[in-house]
């Protein structure tokens, strides 16, 4: 079945981005949100045609996508299933899947979904039709899901630019506990430990270097979202924390025994695993070069740098900006592929008066 129109229930950042991407591919998009201001902004962004009620939004839709908070997902999905047409397929974008799939288990029209977008902002004003380009989008069909409905959702996700991956709901939750929920928990632990510590009167947060900043970038994420995620996936998160505790104890034992060989093997194992992870994103992570550029705090600096790199056809694989202070400026980290590209970029930026430090992303 070719999709003619979809409905987005919950028109925040993710829902509005789905609607924009769907409209880009020629599919009509209606929307409803319990917050009228959120719905109004999504309409102003031309993401959705607003509906006055949930029933009005769902009526006649080929596909309904529910973008509600995790704690509310089971109830909202079941309400949508009650209102939707018999041949309408329903999916969602929640960060956990077991509870919502269990709630809809007897209805073959529901297929759970979770796009991995790495979004740290929210609100329909930040919606972006390109948000899902290249992103993994997990699909968790229920036991009664037929192949035709799965094909429809699979095709829809692909049309948004994402890469659909079919997985069991329980396996999904154990997977994201390790890849997403545990890192968020540890970022909070690290920052709270540093914030509660004083070393001979010195505040660690005032002396924080790049290591702490890099590892705690996601700390303090929206508690209205993350409390629900942690509690909803508590069993998998607790299991991941137990495994983490065991690995910390192994490191403690090696340090106590002054076992340098074990510590070296531990670091080497991490290097191999990091390369495996980066290979997914970059193909050849061994070719990646990191340029750290010190920036003054003045308008137009970033635009000038990227314009200059673009003019020389130097492709930036990734970048990150760290602002230190108005007096100290900040650091721009640029990732390029290949030593020749790094040398060209370094020469160009140094000619413009910037201090640049170049190093491989992975130390061989």
The topology string of helices and strands comes to EHEHEHEHEHEEHEHHHHHEHEEHE
What oligomerization state is this entry in? single chain
CATH class of the largest domain: Alpha Beta
For the secondary structure, the number of strands is: 12
The helical percent reads 40-55%
Structure in words:
This protein has 364 residues and is an alpha/beta fold. The protein folds into three domains: 5-167, NAD(P)-binding Rossmann-like Domain (Rossmann fold, 3-Layer(aba) Sandwich), CATH 3.40.50.720; 172-258, 6-phosphogluconate dehydrogenase C-terminal like domain (6-phosphogluconate dehydrogenase C-terminal fold, Orthogonal Bundle); 285-360, ACT domain (Alpha-Beta Plaits, 2-Layer Sandwich), CATH 3.30.70.260. Helix content is 46%, strand content 18%. It contains 13 helices and twelve strands. The chain has helices spanning 13-24, 36-44, 54-58, 73-83, 98-103, 147-159, 169-195, 210-215, 223-232, 234-256, 260-282, 301-311, 339-351, and strands at residues 5-9, 28-32, 49-50, 63-66, 89-92, 110-115, 136-141, 163-166, 288-295, 318-325, 329-337, 356-360. The strands form two sheets. Strands 3-2-1-4-5-6-7-8 form an eight-stranded mixed beta sheet, sandwiched between helices. Helix 4 links the parallel strand 4 and strand 5 (89-92). It is globular. The mean pLDDT is 92.
